[in-house]
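Honest question from a wet-lab person: if I give you the sequences of every part of a complex, can you actually get the arrangement of the whole thing, not just the pieces? Trying it with mine:
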Amino acid sequence: MASNKSTPQLSVLSPIITASRSRSLTRKFRAGLILWLVITFFSACERQPSSSNQPDRSLIKIGYYGDLSGPTFNFGESAKNGVLMAAEDINQAGGINGRRVDVVIEDDQGSPERAATRASKLIDQDKVIAVIAGGTSGNSRAGAPKAQVANIPLIAPSATDPAVTQIGDYVFRACFIDAFQGEVMAKFAVNTLKARKAAILLDFNSPYSRGLSDFFELSFTRLGGQIVDKQLYTISDGDYRGQLNSIRLAAPDVIYIPGYYGNVALIAKQARKIGITQPLLGGDGWDAPELWDLGGDSLNGSYISNHYSADDPSPPIQTFVREYKQRYGNLLPDAHAALAYDAMRVLIDAIQRAGTTEGPKLREALAQTKSFPGVTGIITINEERNAIKPAVVLQLQDRKYIYQETIQPETTAAAGASPTTAPNRAKKPK
Amino acid sequence: MSRYLRTLIIVLIVLGVLYGVDIVFHGRLISPYFARIAMLSGIAITLAVSLNLINGFTGQFSIGHAGFMAVGAYSSAYFSVNYGVRLAESLGGGSLGWMVSLFLATIVGAVCAGFAGLVVGVPSLRLKGDYLAIVTLGFGQIIVVFLNNIEAVGGARGYSGIPIVKSFFWIFLIAILTIVVVYNIVHSAFGRALISIREDELAAEAMGVNTTRYKVMAFVISSAMAGAGGVLLAHFDGYLNPKSFEFIKSFEILIMIILGGLGSIVGSVLGAIVLTILPEALRGFAEYRMVIYSLLLIILMITRPQGLLGGNNALKIWRARRRARSAAAKAQIVDAPAESSSDRNPTENPPGKEHA
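Yes, you can. This is the full assembly:
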């Protein structure tokens, strides 16, 4: 009977179905195998709490979850490095009021569902006193309600989606939101580059790209500029010449391309090939080591907005870059690492000021963070628990990001933007 | 009469046990983390058992289960956000109000997912071959792209603000309901028709089984149940992201039923539980987690290609052994009865106990 089970429509599965019943295994062995599997899972599952439930007065436990595997693993990995570095720094300096900082690390594999489970595990099992949520906004949003319910502060270093901090008063962020980035680039284009006409090329499937583009357009026109052309692409496109030709004919002064490095590199190459010489403008989505490998010299003369610049000559940044490189095998710290480092230091600062690790008091202290000198700028937490801080504009030249200028947040308009008009920064292309 | 009474008593006991566990979970007598994993297992059971109806019993190959789940999750979430909250509040805002609201949301989600199943199933199930696999794969992708672009449900940023109505009681009620429905379908004339389609579609047609009709019916029921699973997930964290319903999710469910055994309900339940706990249990291995996870699956597929409980259901083996033993005892055979029963293929046993 069993061998007749393979029907033609099951070609993918048929090897599994038709494979003969393994008679060589005795029933006892099979039962044993199942029993072993079940026991292993349950015992492994049970063992966790006993080892971590004892409250240790000499330790301060801080949880970290982020995508250490999955399509955007480099986000979570960099953030983890930043968090660990800040923790080691404080431990070497004698800890917080003599208590050592212990970071419990969890991998959410880039899935929002797992992020919620991990956050729940950190809070309920490990009894951490605060959580840092690395990676994308979606995962921060999935885990944040757990922290809110448990009255445990959560800081998302790099979640730029305005909705993240609207989850509750225990949720903070350490970066600016996308609205501000669009505004920064518009200001730079009008004030520094003296641009009057701009064209936009955006990924219409990406909320990150759409958010940046919308706010660039808004600010640019408000500053007296004019959007002469707006073209769309999707992340899987490889040929952008149609859109670029249309942009070329519109003859803008600058071209704004708020996308991710994979597409942007190709766009830059093709733009130079068809004779577009105007500067290209972008956001922090461009910032990746792979950008130069893909785009090469065509990227020269472009400008991007970013959270910080590793080339910034200011001493705190150079110290951070040097130490990070020492620790992690000459790896250049990207924005995720710097933001997570700052988030952790803001948290440590708050614990010191609060003098306690109790959730409500720690939350108070975090909310009162003012003019904290971070690597990514002077950080002030506003009443919406967003970090108010400057953005930097960098020029791309010969595989280097050359620091141009720092643009300060002058209004709270960007920070207080409504969630419906300012979508988040999504994932980088897979 | 006594049969109805017995059923009623069983139903009451099950409800009582679920309610008791619910109270334990609610009172935080056990860690919310474990409660969470237990409830996620319940959702996984609903999904796995429903997929087993189409993949295991009907022998069709659907790889877009997450797509139907997404339809159920998003449609019910939309319902809850726009009507459910108001309804629950008008009913006093107590747990009863939320139960009614969640019940309606479940129906909305199941109906929408079932309708999606009908739309996908009717054209593709008329054909034999791998078409269903291709169409369901495509459907799963299309749904994700759609959800990424519908701003009314949050788009790619995800849908938040869904009322969180999670209870052990409700999740396992749906899971048990799914199991009972699938069990009853499989043990009815309808189920026998489905199994005949799996064994040989041509022969089934020759015997007068309207194969397309039965396949579509099974597919729609399976999709509706997947939708119900999605409803539970939507109200579990109060946050949905299209990323959760990508192709990989469909495969997770598929692995559950293959691991547990195609065509075995107990197997799907076991597979669902094991695969929900496994990633948590393997956390201690850090970087080697994925390697060990894959290795376990490979070892299992080599040693038990039909899945943990596929082919020979544990219950069936046990019954066969007991029958063999009693027969042996009656015949007063001195030879070791264990050996004769262990080699015995239960499917060769005289039919008396139906296949489970």
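Two things worth pointing out. Residues 179-306 of chain A form a domain with the Rossmann fold fold (CATH 3.40.50.2300). The CA atoms of residues 155 and 172 of chain A lie 5 Å apart.
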